[in-house]
Write a structure and sequence with these properties.
The chain contains 22 helices and two strands. The protein has 469 residues and is mainly alpha-helical. The protein has a two-stranded antiparallel ribbon. The longest helix is centred in the middle third of the chain and has 40 residues, at 166-205. It is globular and about 100 Å long.
Length: 469
């Protein structure tokens, strides 16, 4: 389709189009779809390029009409028209409605409204699955949560019908790979707008702009942050639903068997190798030789934040098995790389925390604390980072023997209390650690002229101001 004109070939046609557009908008706002539909048909047939809103509003309009229609013949016609609308919109506005997007929603509506026909024909189901697959491979991280949801539902149906787990696992591999990128991209955009809002707030607090101007300037970034966070939540909800559904099919044994057969043939396709790594990592298959092989291929070919992160985790796991201290040094190097390549605060917090753990394992407490504070800078509610610092303080007896015995536990208690305050999910652990601490005896305090509640500075490597207990 080529649109040689926007509203019409003649002035009369253009006037008629604008009149119909006005009527369509009036009916649409009133949700009077019975009247809106004929004007929609006229506009799509005579002036398909007149307005994007003809298509952005079509899904809701047709869903309502299909749901309300009692005549089966008319209902089927409406379904056909809804599906057809995705072909037209791609031709009329290809930059706004990409081929992958339209293909995905065609498949979505076929699965939504043609399930009875699909149940009778496994071949048709596989054709539809191929349509979904083409859509998500075209759209990749831009694929909508609704498409992922329906795509995985269909893959699961075919897996059950054919008793072949490869369908659901391949769909899961695509979902985990691309959805992680979707979440990351949305978080990057969210954090950009947060920076804008923070800078505006600084201008306001320094009296450089007044309240009315602040409210006006904040409208767009505030709306953008809300939209991006909603997108993050929708993607995460979809991914969590898929991960729950795939659990019965994707044990490490099944994944290992499936990917061990495929890895040699896909080793030059880094996108495919990435899917193996992410799928096995999310499945907890970190000790699998297949996971290690795929991860090594991935990192050597195209190092990324993800590959560096998992290489670091793998090195720490290897150290836990054989106590080879060189593996801890490798973990530190990999995690430093993961920190450098992290884009979002969530990624920075996670990578810095594992880096802190690696330093702690090595006995480099000062470096571990720095990394833990870097994690807290990215995520102030990360209670486990405070617990890690508290754990290092409580085990400092061998390093800090010149002060009052157990004075370092006062500093540890502060960190455990802070962990419980900022992160309810780890409060039980933090409070239990705090309750188990041994403090200096009262006789020791009395001999030194000290009393409970007094300020005290813990020396050694800790260098913290705390309170006598």
């Amino acid at each position: 389709m080529q649109c040689h004109y926007k509203y019409g070939a003649t002035e009369a046609d253009s006037l008629k189009c604008i009149e119909q557009l006005t009527n369509f908008n009036i009916f649409l706002k009133a949700k009077n779809y019975t009247e809106a539909y004929p004007t929609w048909q006229h506009l799509v047939s005579t002036s398909p390029c007149c307005w994007e809103g003809l298509y952005t509003n079509a899904q809701n309009m047709f869903q309502a009409m299909i749901s309300a229609e009692t005549d089966s013949v008319k209902k089927e016609h409406l379904i056909d028209t809804l599906i057809y609308s995705y072909e037209v919109r791609n031709q009329a506005f290809p930059e706004r409605f990409s081929k992958g997007y339209c293909l995905g929603f065609k498949a979505y509506n076929i699965l939504q409204y043609r399930q009875n026909l699909l149940k009778k024909d496994i071949g048709k189901m596989e054709e539809l699955l191929n349509m979904f697959t083409e859509s998500v491979e075209l759209e990749k991280e831009k694929s909508q949560p609704a498409i992922w949801d329906k795509y995985f539902q269909l893959a699961e149906k075919i897996t059950k019908a054919k008793k072949d787990t490869s369908y659901v696992i391949e769909a899961y591999g695509r979902a985990t790979d691309y959805l992680d990128i979707s979440i990351n991209n949305a978080l990057v955009e969210y954090e950009k707008q947060v920076v804008v809002l923070d800078s505006l707030n600084e201008l306001y607090t320094s009296h450089k702009i007044d309240t009315d101007y602040l409210v006006n300037l904040c409208k767009k970034p505030a709306a953008d942050t809300a939209r991006q966070m909603k997108l993050v939540l929708n993607y995460r909800k979809t991914l969590a639903k898929i991960e729950k559904a795939v659990a019965p099919y994707a044990s490490c044994e099944v994944l290992e068997e499936l990917y061990s057969q495929k890895l040699e043939s896909i080793k030059n396709d880094i996108s495919a190798v990435n899917k193996v790594v992410v799928t096995m990592a999310k499945g907890g298959c970190l000790t699998s030789p297949v996971f290690k092989q795929a991860l090594l291929i991935q990192h050597q070919s195209k190092p990324s934040r993800t590959s560096a992160y998992w290489m670091g985790v793998l090195s720490l796991n290897t150290y836990a098995t054989n106590e080879d201290k060189s593996e801890v040094d490798k973990a530190i190097t990999y995690m430093q790389e993961a920190v450098r390549l992290s884009e979002t605060n969530e990624q920075k917090a996670d990578a810095n925390f594992i880096l802190a753990t690696a330093y702690q394992t090595k006995g480099a407490f000062s470096e571990a604390r720095n990394a833990a504070y870097a994690a807290l800078k990215a995520d102030p509610s990360m209670g486990k980072a405070y617990i890690l610092i508290g754990d290092m303080y409580r085990t400092s007896g061998g390093r800090c023997s010149d002060g009052i015995p157990y004075d370092y536990n006062w500093a540890a208690a502060d960190k455990y209390s802070k962990a419980a305050a900022v992160d309810p999910s780890c409060a039980a652990t933090a409070n239990a650690r705090r309750s188990s601490l041994v403090f200096p005896k009262k006789e020791e305090l009395f001999r030194r002229g000290m009393s409970s509640g007094q300020s005290y500075h813990v020396g050694c490597w800790i260098q913290e101001n705390t309170t006598v207990r």
